[in-house]
Amino acid sequence: MTIPDDDSTKRKRWTHLRRVLERAGPFKDPNFEPSTELLSGIESVRILIIGAGGLGCELLKDM
């Protein structure tokens, strides 16, 4: 089974995160500036997880 790698699939994957990053809101920091460029920055971030026991295992599974 192959998974289609088109733009619509990628857009659906990040829909909820895009709602947070691209909108201003009452609970956000006053200095926060919504931008469509924030998501591309997050996609390129590298994460190091040390001690993958308990909750860490769930984080590794979802990456």
Q: What fraction of the residues are assigned to beta strands by DSSP?
A: under 5%
User: What is the oligomeric state here?
Assistant: single chain
Taken from the alpha-carbon principal axes, the silhouette is extended
Largest pleated sheet? none
Account of the protein in words:
By secondary structure, this protein is mainly α. It has one domain. The chain is 44% helix and 0% strand. It has helices at 7-13, 15-21, 38-43, 55-62.
State the main characteristics:
mainly alpha, NEDD8-activating enzyme E1 catalytic subunit, 63 residues, Ubiquitin-activating_enz
Report a brief summary of the structure:
With 63 residues, the chain is an all-alpha fold. It contains four helices and no strands.
Question: Topology, pairings included?
Answer:
Elements (H helix, E strand, L loop, with lengths): L6 H7 L1 H7 L16 H6 L11 H8 L1
